[in-house]
# Entry
Amino acid sequence: MVEENKTARQLFEEVMANPERAKFGFGRKLAIVNVDPQKAYTCIDEFKTAYETDPRQIEYINSISSLARAKGMPVIWTHVAYAEDGSDCGIWGTRTNTPDSLQNIKYGSRRYEFDDRCEIDPKDMVYTKRMPSAFFETPLQSLLVYHGVDTVVVTGGSTSGCVRATAVDALSRGYRTIVPIETCADKHESFHFANLTDLAIKYADVEPVQTVIDWLEAQ
# Structure
């Protein structure tokens, strides 16, 4: 194992600066999967569980979602919520039991609501999920097959959690997978950049959001 005193951000910047970094690229048709941009994770002045990385994150999410929608490509939004007893959170919900705990995001609560800045169109699909990946026990796979999608763009949070899990699952299902940097957020820059680095090396094309914008505008 290599040991060095570089920060996660520095390692990420080195990977991104490598001109020989291989990419999966875009296919013929993409879907935007916006993972959990809900108040529990975006309202930093209200909830301890919230975080912010790029202040324009949701603006960028809205921009690429609008472009995809205009090109006839599907847009999906997910958020998490659990039953009153939290039992559908399973073992994941057993470490703590405080008002901030995961299993205490209840249907109809403010923590469950999407951030007010999210521009969700009536044509978009909205799924409630209970585990990290947007694919786990949701209709997402069937929707992508129906629409003939071959590329999945993953946004949202957290980078180290549900974004990463969704990106890995997307690749595992045979999709070209793209993670736009400015559209993801996490609690700490080390978690954020370490996971972006790992995604870029193994599972996804980690790109500036402008790359996605340019591709969509060219379609």
Strands lie at 30-35, 75-80, 125-129, 151-157, 176-180, 184-185, 205-207. The first helix runs from residue 8 to 17. Helices lie at 8-17, 39-42, 57-70, 140-146, 159-172, 189-203, 209-218. Residues 159 and 198 are 11 Å apart (CA to CA).
